[in-house]
């Protein structure tokens, strides 16, 4: 039994099916929405018109999954799990009922964070988590003129850009001093400038205190903590997400300190025969050692694959996360991996930093764009703890080389020795990654000389 029909749930089901045939293992998948295996990360780009069709976001339809031997039931919500009787209760437009299971995969994903303020649940306040959410928001924007986005995280900025593309007036409200709080403030400042360059109003260091509603009960704007009133036809939640664990909690499946479902490396919960994967579970951060919830499709697919392999009789483990992420605002790309300065301090690391400015290609090539890299290296050992990148076209994907280095606990001296590719259309002879590693190594050596 699989509860949740997106990345983690359907990956688990598909992997289990590959290992055990329909006569050996029946697999039932419940999905409360209309679609399965879709890209929630692509929703802002569909709203903004970059992606032409809703169907383009669907990797595999319910019909395709059914053809692969899965009993997929869309438009059907699981309302309760009885672990003693080993049944789930469900309801749909056609009625309600129960279904027994031997093994259960909880892949309920995440839900948008909602600040506990008056009016936050009013009609006209939209989250952007499921494909159905995207459909509802796109319809609401068709008749709108002004939008307020609550939260300047990844999804908030992507939605802000999508709304500007549609010609709407947009204001982003965030209580932090710079957007996307997982970046250091100096990198966040570049991102803020890019957002303002889209003619998006940024209201920073000022959270939302209330969502205003009209006589019809619909949202008509927000009031900030400082008392500023911002009118809007549509309010969009861009504060990030939290794990959707209501079903698991009610069933008695233990949660971890992060608030996500507690699982081991094989994606097993603490209840025998119950597995969990995706945005609803917690993972281990490989640097801090902390249990964290990181809601990304990359992790959800991997975790679902691990659960499915184990359910099918194989053996696989999920190795953890290091916080790698990227986004873009207009033509500005930003990316990060490992720990930010604040996260490294919280984890107890002493570190040095290095910041370099370079170009994405050889400086003499047409189209060379600026790029800034910031590296964090542990004092004495020189171990790479984190990296952040901000720049124009050709910048963000460089984070992958640094993510590999962080993942494998490499020192900045080892990064400096990497045999990275070079050709003038792609990189200066000293790639910005190598320049940053060299400067970080110099900072480590200077620090050692003072010890």
Level-2 CATH architecture of the largest domain: 3-Layer(bba) Sandwich
Helix content: 25-40%
Q: CATH class of the largest domain, please?
A: Alpha Beta
Q: Helical stretch count? A: 12
How are the strands ordered across the major sheet?
A: 3-2-1-7-18
What's the CATH topology label of the largest domain? FAD/NAD(P)-binding domain
- DSSP strand tally: 25
Rg measurement, Å? 23 Å
CATH superfamily of the largest domain: FAD/NAD(P)-binding domain
How many angstroms does the end-to-end distance come to? Answer: 58 Å
Q: What is the mean pLDDT?
A: 96
How large a portion of the residues is in β-strands, by DSSP E? 25-35%
**What can be said about the biggest beta sheet?**
5 strands, parallel
Detail the poorly predicted runs.
none
Shape: globular
User: Which structural class is indicated by helix and strand composition?
Assistant: alpha/beta
* Structural domain tally: 3
């Amino acid at each position: 039994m699989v509860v949740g029909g997106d990345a983690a749930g359907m990956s688990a089901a598909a992997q289990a099916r590959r290992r055990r045939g329909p006569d050996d293992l029946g697999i039932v998948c419940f999905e409360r929405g209309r679609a399965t295996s879709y890209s929630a990360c692509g929703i802002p780009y569909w709203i903004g018109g970059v992606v032409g069709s809703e169907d383009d976001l669907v990797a595999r339809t319910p019909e395709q999954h059914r053809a692969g031997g899965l009993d997929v039931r869309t438009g059907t919500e699981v309302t309760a799990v009885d672990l003693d009787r080993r049944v789930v209760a469900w309801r749909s437009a056609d009625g309600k009922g129960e279904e027994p299971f031997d093994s259960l995969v909880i892949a309920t994903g995440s839900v948008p964070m909602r600040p506990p303020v008056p009016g936050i649940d009013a009609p006209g306040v939209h989250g952007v988590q499921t494909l159905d959410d995207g459909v509802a928001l796109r319809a609401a924007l068709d008749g709108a003129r002004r939008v307020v986005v609550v939260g300047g995280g990844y999804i908030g900025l992507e939605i802000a850009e999508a709304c500007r593309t549609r010609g709407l007036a947009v204001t982003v409200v965030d209580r932090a001093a710079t957007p996307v709080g997982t970046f250091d403030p100096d990198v966040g400042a570049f991102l803020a400038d890019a957002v303002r360059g889209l003619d998006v109003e940024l209201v920073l260091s000022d959270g939302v205190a209330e969502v205003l509603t009209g006589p019809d009960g619909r949202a008509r704007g927000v009031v900030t903590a400082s008392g500023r009133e911002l009118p809007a036809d549509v309010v969009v939640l861009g504060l990030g997400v939290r794990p959707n664990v209501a079903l698991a909690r009610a069933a008695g499946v233990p949660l971890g300190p992060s608030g996500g479902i507690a699982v081991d490396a094989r994606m097993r919960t603490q209840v025998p025969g119950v597995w969990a994967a995706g945005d609803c579970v917690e993972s281990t951060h490989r640097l801090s050692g902390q249990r964290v919830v990181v809601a990304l499709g990359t992790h959800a697919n991997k975790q679902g694959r691990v659960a499915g392999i184990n359910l099918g009789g194989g053996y696989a483990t999920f190795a953890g996360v290091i916080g790698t992420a990227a986004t873009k605002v207009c033509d500005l790309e930003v990316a990060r991996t490992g720990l930010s300065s604040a996260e490294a301090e919280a984890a107890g690391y002493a570190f040095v930093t290095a910041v370099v400015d370079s170009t994405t290609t050889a400086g003499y090539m047409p189209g060379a764009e600026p790029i800034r890299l910031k590296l964090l290296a542990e004092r004495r050992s020189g171990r790479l703890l984190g990296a952040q990148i901000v720049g124009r076209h050709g910048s963000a994907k460089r984070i992958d080389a640094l993510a590999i280095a962080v993942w494998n606990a490499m020192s900045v001296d080892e990064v400096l020795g990497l045999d990275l590719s070079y050709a003038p259309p792609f990189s200066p002879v000293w790639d910005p990654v190598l320049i940053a590693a060299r400067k970080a190594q110099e900072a480590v050596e200077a620090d050692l000389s003072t010890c």
